[in-house]
Write a structure and sequence with these properties.
The chain is mainly alpha-helical and 215 residues long. Helices cover 49% and strands 10% of the residues. The radius of gyration is 17 Å and the shape is globular. Bound molecules: manganese (II) ion (MN).
Length: 215
C-alpha cells in the first residue's frame, strides 16, 4: 500500500476534518486521526529505532512476516505497525457521504461472491457489529480474486501473504464513541455511506492485475 520505510510519517487526511459530517463529526475524526493514528506512527518508529535492518522494510513487508522480526519488537510492530496500516487504509477509503455503490470489476465480484450488494452489506454489517471487543471488519481478495469478509482483533491485519485488503471498518470504540456512544450499529450503518468505492475498485483492479498469470 505504501512504499515508504522508517521513519514513517503520519499522512494527513485526504479530506477536511468535517468532510464526513453527519456520519462522523469533526471532533471524532480529529481525535481519531490526530491522536490515535499519530500515536501508532510514533510508537512504530520508536520500536524500529534500534533495528537498522528492519528500517529498510515497507510496512506491508514488516506486517507480512511478524514472526521473522527480532523477538523484542514483534509485539510492538504487530500492534503499532498494524495500527498505522489499518488507519491509513481506513481514512483513505472514506469520502463525503454521497451514497456511492460499487462499480466495475469490484461490483461484479461482489455479486458473484455474495449474491448481491445488499447481501454483501448485510454480511459486512454483521461482521462489524458482531466483532467482540476492539478490532476491524474487512473485505479482502485472495489470489484468485475471490472476495471474502473477515474480522481481526486489536490492530491485527489479515494474512498479507494471501490476501489483499479492499475495504475495512474500524470498530474500536475510539472510532465512534464520542459521537455514537455505545451505538456501534448506527456508526456502521453510516460508514457504508462513506465508502469511497472508486478507490476500493481501483485497489481491486490493481490486485487482479498483480495476480494475473504471466506468460
Ligand atoms: Mn481507530
Amino acid at each position: 500500500m505504501r512504499a515508504e520505510v522508517y521513519p514513517f510519517v503520519a499522512r494527513p487526511l485526504p479530506y477536511e476534518y468535517d468532510a464526513l459530517v453527519p456520519v462522523l463529526d469533526a471532533e471524532t475524526l480529529t481525535f481519531h486521526h490526530d491522536k490515535h493514528y499519530k500515536t501508532y506512527v510514533d510508537n512504530l518508529n520508536n520500536a524500529l529505532s534500534d533495528y537498522p535492518e528492519q528500517q529498510k522494510k515497507s510496512l506491508p513487508e514488516l506486517l507480512a512476516d511478524i514472526t521473522g522480526l527480532p523477538a523484542a519488537i514483534q509485539t510492538a510492530v504487530r500492534n503499532n505497525g498494524g495500527g498505522v496500516y489499518n488507519h491509513e487504509l481506513y481514512f483513505d477509503s472514506m469520502r463525503e457521504p454521497v451514497g456511492q455503490e460499487p462499480a466495475g470489476a469490484l461490483a461484479e465480484a461482489i455479486e458473484r461472491d455474495f449474491g448481491s450488494y445488499r447481501q454483501w452489506k448485510e454480511q459486512m454489517k454483521q461482521a462489524a457489529v458482531g466483532k467482540f471487543g476492539s478490532g476491524w471488519a474487512w473485505l479482502v481478495a485472495d489470489k484468485d480474486g475471490v472476495l471474502s469478509i473477515t474480522q481481526t482483533s486489536n490492530q491485527d491485519v489479515p494474512d498479507l501473504k494471501e490476501y489483499m485488503p479492499i475495504l475495512l471498518v474500524d470498530v474500536w470504540e475510539h472510532a465512534y464513541y464520542l459521537q455514537y456512544k455505545n451505538r456501534r450499529a448506527d456508526y456502521v450503518d453510516g460508514w457504508f455511506e462513506l465508502i469511497n468505492w472508486r478507490k476500493a475498485g481501483k485497489r481491486y483492479e490493481d490486485w487482479l492485475e498483480e495476480i494475473r498469470p504471466r506468460k
